[in-house]
Amino acid sequence: MYxxxxxxxxxxxxxxxxxxxxxxxxxxYALLRNAxxxxxxxxxxxxxxxxxxxxDVIIVGGGGxxxxxxxxxxxxxxxxxxxxxxxxxxxxxxxxxxxxxIRSNYLxxxxxxxxxxxxxxxxxxxxxxxxxxxxxxxxVMNLAHSxxxxxxxxxxxxxxxLNGIDSEILTTIQIKELLPIxxxxxxxxxxxxxxxxxxxxxxxxxxxxxxxxxxxxxxHGVDIIQNCEVTGMLRKGGCxxxxxxxxxxxxxxxxxxxxxxxxxxxxxxxxxxxxxxSYPLQxxxxxxxxxxxxxxxxxxxxxxxxxxSDKGEMVLGAGIDGYHSYTQRGSFHVVEGQLGALCELFPxxxxxxxxxxxxxIVDISPDASPILSKTPIKGFYINGGxxxxxxxxxxxxxxxFAHTIARDExxxxxxxxxxxxxxSGALIDEHGAAxxxx
Amino acid sequence: MSAGYRLQKGGLIDRKTRLNFTFNxxxxxxYEGDTLASAxxxxxxxxxxxxxxxxxPRGIFATGVEEPNALVQLERxxxxxxxxxxxxxxxxxxxxxDSINCWPSPDYDAMSILGLFYRLIPAGFxxxxxxxPATAWRFYEYFIRHAAGLGCAPTExxxxxxxxxxxxxxxxIVGAGPAGLTAALGATRSGARVILVDEQDQIGGWLLNxxxxxxxxxxxxxxxAAFLELNDTADAQILTKTTAFGYFDHNFIALxxxxxxxxxxxxxxxxxxxxxxxxxxVVLATGAIERPLVFADNDRxxxxxxxxxxxxxxxxxxxxxxxxxxxxxNDDAYRTGLALKEAGVAVPAIVDLRHDPSGELAVAAVxxxxxxxxxxxxxxxxxxxxxTGVDIMNLNNTGxxxxxxxxxxxxxxxxxxxxxxxxxxxxSHSGGKTIFDKRRGIFLPSKxxxxxxxxxxxxxxxxxxxxxxxxxxxxxxxxxxxGISSHNRRKAPVSIKEEEADSRLxxxxxxxxxxxxxxxxxxxxxxxxxxxxxxxxAREGYASIEHAKRYTTLGMAPDQGKxxxxxxxxxLSQVLGTEDPGxxxxxxxxxxxxxxxxxxxxxxxxxxxxxPIRMTPMHHxxxxxxxxxxxxxxxxxxxxxxxxxxxxxxxxxxxxxAVRNAVGILDASTLGKIDIRGPDAVILLxxxxxxxxxxxxxxxxxxxxxxxxxxxxxxxxxxTRLAKDHFLMTTTSGNAAQxxxxxxxxxxxxxxxxxxxxxxxxxxxxxxxxCGPSARALxxxxxxxxxxxNESFPSMSMREGxxxxxxxxxxxxxxxxxxxxxxxxxxSYGMHVWTALINAGKKYGITPFGTETMHVLRAEKGYxxxxxxxxxxVIPSDLxxxxxxxxxxxxxxxxxxxxxxxxxxxxKQLVGLLTENPTTILPEGGQITAKQTLSxxxxxxxxxxxxxxxxxxxHSIALALIKGGRELHGDCVxxxxxxxxxxxxxxxxxxxxxxxxxxxx
Lengths: 438, 1001
Ligand SMILES: Cc1cc2nc3c(=O)[nH]c(=O)nc-3n(C[C@H](O)[C@H](O)[C@H](O)COP(=O)(O)OP(=O)(O)OC[C@H]3O[C@@H](n4cnc5c(N)ncnc54)[C@H](O)[C@@H]3O)c2cc1C
Prior knowledge:
Mean pLDDT of chain B: 95
Radius of gyration of chain A: 22 Å
Largest sheet of chain A: 8 strands, mixed
Number of strands of chain B: 50
Number of helices of chain B: 24
Distance between the termini of chain A: 59 Å
Number of strands of chain A: 19
Number of helices of chain A: 11
Strand content of chain A: 15-25%
CATH class of the largest domain in chain B: Alpha Beta
Strand order of the largest sheet of chain A: 5-6-4-14-15-16-13-17
Oligomer: heterodimer
Bound molecules: flavin-adenine dinucleotide
Structural class of chain A: alpha/beta
Order of helices and strands of chain A: HEHEEHHEHEHEEHEEEEEHEEEEHEEEHH
Shape of chain A: globular
Shape of chain B: elongated
Mean pLDDT of chain A: 92
Distance between the termini of chain B: 94 Å
Largest interface: A-B, 122 and 134 residues
């Protein structure tokens, strides 16, 4: 009998500091090939380098938006000397905590353009990144429960359609046909009067979006540095020059802040006060069950949104907690309220059980639209304010923010979303984004 | 299968009460006191179901909440429950259970073919494939989804209901094992109000599974005495079958109390109750959960936790097998060997990872004639559908490999123990920190952030005698911390301490070939996660525990990895080369500790009680009149009153004409009413409204617009001055609560110096509005103390007097353009006045009208509805309402009105629209374009906010917001719909009685 070394550190495909210029390709053939080797030859999805003293661009925040920004900076603008600094593990913020609803049925032209660009990028993202992000275009339904809901819904559907984006209105009967388990009884407290449906909308695997972008960015040479918290900003005159971190000072002439609930905290380190409020937003999942819910349902009056994950869990969420906080958990009564709404819409879920519940910190701007902007400090850029609904925007946000950083001017897609709008008053009010902004 | 795994004697079961049940259609029986798991074991059932990913056969592994494998679909029909742990189901007569995730049966499962491809589908394989062609994911997903998902949801609504309780106490004790019980005794003896909860159906915790001696008597007798003492203490409440599942801020703990189907069905009791407990002090005596050793094929039916095997023998009188091999790294598993031996079950060997185990228990085992194979490991499990034997080899010195030739031993159960993990979940929910005890390889609670203690096994104290002592001490301490200072000198109960030797930590039990190659060492049996999956994750850079967890799905199943997480973490640390799993980190435990029924969390807030229904004092009348209802916020409002077979449109025409030509009556009680009092009332109004209020005379009314800080219209309404420092503000029906909140927020945070009080009086007053040319004549019949002439009671004023014998405030406010009286009477008189007016009004043709008619009439006059003509992006000038905006004073939102964007001339402005064809009604929400086109995308210049057919005008009318609309009067615009585009002409938004003459009657 021979002795086997079980406990040695596993050999890595590439050493930590080597550049994985050529990304190892994922495919069914690669899986087959690697199965023969007991999967021992897979490369790291991204390296884990030590930070260099200086970069061309630093992105603070390794969520989906930050990683996408780095990816598009490298891919579209040829800037590859980039570090993404993440205080914990990439995707560990709202990217890995959200309910993954992706849709582009927004009312205002400016929003529609941004979210539609994102949706289109999502449609090819698995192929572009060679990482299956499992974008499931199962359709998103927004329910209307009152005459004013219906009026608002029609207005939206008309606007969205005229913006060239798919959107339609469903009658109660059509809703029931698509989703037999929903309660359409006219006797219910807030009966369903109709719904809008965006068929191209759906859900995706949130972690995969972060990991896919990380792998893509890494393959272009971007350094992804985890467990590296930014604790201060370095400025000289009116320019940004670098950051202080738990891994030391790192310099760069351009810094992009993409930190969701902590965006205003980081901006404050550079002396900028942002019009953002941070609140907990909770989500939860049920035990896994066999497929029963074929689309995504969102309701504002009966406040809950629901989809079923590939694993079979019901994924649930609703509105923000009523107070400011940076702890990634919320209050119990909010959960109770959401589940009451769930049982109202789907009475058969009453006997299912809740398995996990958590919270993320969302950054809400006064008009519930994001801020993708230059700032009064040269080289200092902000991408935040996505609040409760930015997962769906991950690709478009990264894509246009990369342009903003590379060219030092906003792309026409994000030009309406700059900080100036809070001075000029050209707000893009998405509070009613049908009407939960997820 | 052969029956007869029931031991001759022992156990807490009632052998006189036989219970019949069905498993997979097969009739079986057990006893009162059994769980489904113990009854199945007793009947010799080995395979309970199939695993999540590879569809491997799985049996019973544990006894409690930690069970990863033995999941069943319980019952059929509306009461069916998926994914229930057989270990947690108390047996009852007539129970029906079925296996899940297998077809046609757990013994022969078609999907087990997946097991053959296991090498192709390691952790995260789906991220690497199914990408081409791009549209094919939908197809792959269909199959993946159907393969996943475990049990089935019920297909009918829940026939049961749920309740909620709120409770306060001095000390909440979670867990009624030895530590929790002594804590409860300690605290109650000190005089504290105590709630003691335990998830099992009786108190005792782990003691229920043991035969030990406490205070010189059998532990069961001590348990009985403790129960009686607590039960007799008025201030102690014992909640069994109750799980503390979440620990939230400020010592707020959520419990879920369960009732069995025999208690609930048919007698109207709730199935479960959520308890929301606020405790001054919390004692977490949540015990520990055993973890297995991780060896090759450790998921085979027949591999069980050692403690569970002992529990089945002691508590249920069931032998888990006929030949039970023990495989351990610690002394505790020897107790299992001894217990089985005593019960007459063959114990072929105790395989111990340690060399020369020499503790008291090992000595006892040798004495009992059990063979001990020390320094050895199980390297192979024989039997794919149930253990039939094992191969055992010697470990090398470092424990990372095996040497020598294997020895084969036949057995049908492997009772394995890798030590015990303290149950620190609730401590972690509360924000408490943990530390890793390297010697014992366990996470222990350290810093707490709430007022709590962890005690007993939950705190790493595993010996019974120490638990009893520590529990008593902490119980007294908690009472003292809760502010109770009585003297309690009673001593803790005593038990003989059995000295136990250290365990040997070996996170992966080696085999003859590398773990990633052939063997499968399962870490998380519920999600089929193996050691090689974790190794793969680390190799690919998913090296943070959170990444590894998400990549492999370790610990993400309903059991939340209770038996596998620590091993997972330890394996990851090893792969990464950090010796200390504490450094690799622990994943944060999230509520709930065990899954909680969604219906229980919803409680009674479902169906008609989902949201309170608000009804006006005249609700019953409307109902009898057969009105159609409109939901306005929580209010039910009459929408229209159809007569005979009238449809809505016809009813509204009739109602509209009646108001214009005779008199209509409207229930406007839902209007928000806020009573504003105090010397600074005027200052407050000046700050929140755009116009100024000093000059308003007593008994006069004024219309006001409220803006938010961004200058956007937020609410409107009429406010009346009742006295010098007393006003009555009205708000829109839907916004009443928000407006009050808004006033309060400003008063409390920005203007605390203002001497003014706001009180909601919406519910206190009924508002009965009569309007139309005959309104004055009708009202004259009901009052002799109010002069109704235009001179003494002009428009926009208020008079107090008697109407139909009731003290009333009558307001001359019109929202229809007709002469109009809003009669406000105390709510309890509403119905009286309403019916009096209806009866007397017959001769004038009085017609009740609803919200729809009200909206048509106001639209004819070009009056706005907040929320319809406004949407949070509209400023006063957009609506041509600058007349209501003061230039002189400051008010909320004023600065925003001078921003560049507010000054733009191409802002959307309110206009009227007329169609060519008078009967074409434009769709509300229709978008407006400047050019006629159906192709998209196309630029939009505005949208239709309101649109109706005007009966009095004989044509349709619409209001719209259009960019630069005021400059477009006379122009044509287009409303593109899916199939056609409608032409409309832009006009002034007042359609009827443009001079406003009808207001004065
Ligand atoms: C419960 C919930 C449900 C949601 N549901 C949806 C939905 O269904 N659809 C949708 O479109 N959106 C949804 N959202 C919103 C969405 O998750 C976010 O808008 C989006 O993920 C934001 O991505 P991000 O990359 O900007 O932020 P994040 O993923 O939060 O990334 C920010 C990163 O910055 C890091 N960071 C912070 N401070 C520092 C520092 N000082 N130094 C270094 N790093 C730092 C954080 O650790 C974090 O990883 C939901 C959000 C939550 C919380």
